[in-house]
């Protein structure tokens, strides 16, 4: 029983250690002594939903109950460190930093579970009879507050376009100005209030470290660095996530001349319609629709067709990506058969390169004449159409086999060197010494011809 408890404790600790699904949260208030600095949690600890609720209790016990909730789409602690300096006269987080330093009470939580932040507004509304007011950046200057009853002001800040450092810094600076302007208006009106600044999800790349480490089985290759990126396409069936799709680069070329980059439209600006996607117990279709792309392509639809089936040979259920279809402007549908994209049903599938080239790890093979006009390129491709838990990719089955060309080269070279070593040792062992030696002081050694 003690051994079982030990394994259970280790499993829980490992799960907590590998979790990256968290966001920072900044809290400050004009009320004094709301949070005890001695109660600050240790570095690396992820605040759970219950712990966050306990930390928010002092906000509810004040006489003047006014709460401002600033919600960012994506945020990570690295954003504060990376964009702390000025970019082309823009000062990201300048107002936030000053407000934290000058406020009567403040608390910085570097890691709060996304499950807690995603239900934060619901919890706040349930905890007290608040008067909820949604505010956009244009209504900040017109804000009027009725202090006779509890108020909660929800400000959904503009999404951050992470195309490059300059554009990201400017977007953060614009949101920082909104935060500073609203808090200044409340202070000028003499209103006591508390502020929460957080995000719905992390801006880190959408893979847990265990998925990254386990999905890369190229022992002689250099591990790719984990960088800030966007979240995958998330398709729901009304209640839960049923399809996840991600690629660091998603682009098409038609007729060898017209190039279409769908990466930003799909994952950054989200100018893609996937409402036609279909999920069921045995079939899943990811349908991505785009409009107004380039000259000659006004409407584009891409479909990924997946099936789940039990195979008696392996005694388990597998999912496969059977085909990919491209349709545009009422033209003939280009259909591609897919090779080597399959995984156990409870896994996701990952491949560094997927497309129409023979050099890629998983190839899309044209199935009709129209498909020959298209070239498809997907890098860091990952997809899952079944058995998704916690809105996250499961362990990834990688298209790179365990015995990659590099490993085969190492094995063959090692075998040759081992054979040379064995042959050398064998030759040394065959060396013998003379049975007789000539003594220069004695009579000369005479060896009969018969010997």
What is the structure about, briefly put?
The chain has 451 residues and is of the alpha+beta class. Helices cover 26% and strands 31% of the residues. Strand 12 (283-294) and strand 13 (297-311) form a beta hairpin.
Give your account of this protein's structure.
The protein has 451 residues and is of the alpha+beta class. Helix content is 26%, strand content 31%. The protein has helices spanning 2-18, 49-60, 77-82, 94-102, 114-118, 120-127, 165-188, 209-215, 263-268, 405-429, and strands at 22-29, 66-74, 105-113, 131-135, 151-156, 194-201, 233-236, 241-246, 249-254, 258-261, 278-279, 283-294, 297-311, 316-328, 334-338, 342-344, 348-355, 362-366, 374-384, 396-398. The strands form two sheets. Strands 7, 8, 9, 10, 11, 12, 13, 14, 15, 16, 17, 18, 19 and 20 form a 14-stranded mixed beta sheet that branches. A six-stranded mixed beta sheet has the order 3-1-6-2-5-4, sandwiched between helices. A hairpin with a 3-residue loop joins strand 9 (249-254) and strand 10. It starts with a helix and ends in a 22-residue tail after the last helix. Mean pLDDT is 78; it is low at 1-20 and 205-228.
């Amino acid at each position: 029983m003690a051994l079982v408890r030990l394994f259970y404790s280790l499993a829980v600790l490992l799960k907590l250690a590998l979790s990256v699904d968290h966001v920072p949260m900044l809290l400050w208030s004009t009320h004094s002594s709301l949070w005890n600095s001695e109660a600050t949690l240790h570095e690396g600890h992820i605040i759970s939903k219950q712990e966050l609720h306990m930390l928010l209790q002092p906000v509810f016990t004040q006489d003047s109950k006014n709460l401002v909730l600033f919600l960012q789409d994506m945020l990570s602690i690295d954003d504060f460190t990376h964009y702390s300096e000025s970019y082309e006269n823009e000062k990201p987080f300048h107002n936030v930093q000053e407000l934290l330093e000058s406020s009567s009470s403040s608390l910085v939580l570097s890691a709060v579970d996304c499950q807690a932040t995603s239900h934060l507004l619901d919890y706040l509304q349930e905890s007290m009879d608040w008067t909820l007011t949604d505010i956009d950046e244009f209504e900040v200057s017109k804000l009027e507050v009725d202090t006779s009853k509890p108020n909660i002001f929800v400000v959904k800040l503009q999404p951050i376009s992470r195309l490059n450092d300059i554009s990201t810094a400017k977007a953060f600076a614009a949101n920082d100005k909104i935060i500073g302007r609203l808090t200044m208006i409340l202070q000028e009106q003499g209103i006591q209030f508390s502020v929460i600044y957080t995000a719905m999800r992390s801006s880190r790349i959408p893979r847990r470290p265990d998925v990254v480490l386990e999905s890369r089985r190229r022992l002689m290759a250099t591990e790719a660095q984990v960088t800030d990126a966007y979240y995958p396409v998330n398709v729901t069936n009304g209640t839960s996530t049923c399809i996840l799709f991600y690629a660091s680069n998603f682009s098409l070329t038609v007729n060898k001349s017209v190039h279409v980059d769908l990466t930003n439209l799909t994952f950054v600006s989200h100018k893609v319609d996937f409402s036609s996607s279909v999920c069921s117990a045995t079939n899943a279709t990811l349908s991505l629709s785009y409009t107004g792309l380039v000259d000659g392509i006004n409407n584009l639809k891409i479909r990924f067709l997946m099936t789940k089936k039990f195979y008696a040979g392996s005694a388990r259920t597998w999912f496969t990506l059977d085909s990919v279809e491209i349709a545009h402007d009422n033209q003939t549908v280009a259909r591609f058969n897919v090779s080597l994209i399959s995984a156990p049903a409870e896994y996701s599938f990952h491949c560094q390169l997927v497309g129409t080239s023979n050099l890629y790890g998983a190839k899309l093979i044209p199935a009709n004449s129209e498909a020959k006009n298209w070239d498809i390129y997907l890098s860091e491709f990952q997809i899952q159409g079944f058995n998704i838990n916690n809105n996250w990719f499961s362990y990834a089955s990688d298209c790179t086999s365990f015995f990659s060309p590099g490993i085969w080269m190492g094995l063959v070279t090692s075998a040759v060197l081992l054979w040379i070593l064995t042959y050398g040792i064998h030759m040394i062992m065959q060396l013998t010494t003379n049975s007789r030696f000539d003594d220069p002081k004695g009579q000369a050694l005479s060896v009969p011809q018969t010997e």
